[in-house]
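Problem: given the chain below (144 residues), write out its structure.
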Amino acid sequence: MFRGIILGSLLNDNSENINKGNLLYCLITSSALFALYHIGNIQSQNLTMTIMQVFETFGMGCLFGAIYIRKGSILLSFLLHFFIDFTGTIGNGQIVNNSPSQYKYSIVVSLLYMVVLSIIAFNILKINDKSKWEFPIKDSSLNQ
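Solution.
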């Protein structure tokens, strides 16, 4: 939904004047919405974990969006998201101890995780090289 519909629509809306700034706007907006969507998890986890998840999912949203823009297909982003969720569930299981003291430095780690993923995303995107962009949009003249 966040890559295929939201990011795709933002790219389509900005397709006439796509440049580095517009591309970053589209990527950051869709990633922020993806991160904010995860606030709903506060119903099943504490506030600290939810904040950590919002930071981390922003970085992941940048990464997934960059792959989507770079490859012009949602499939790789979809598979990567599935793999991350699946391995996280298998590795961690259901967290039983939900005490805030358990996460003393975790928010800082989550912020670092978000920054690292965002940097990786911008490098994957090769933001200054338009020839590397494979827009998942209908106007094929932009890919030339």
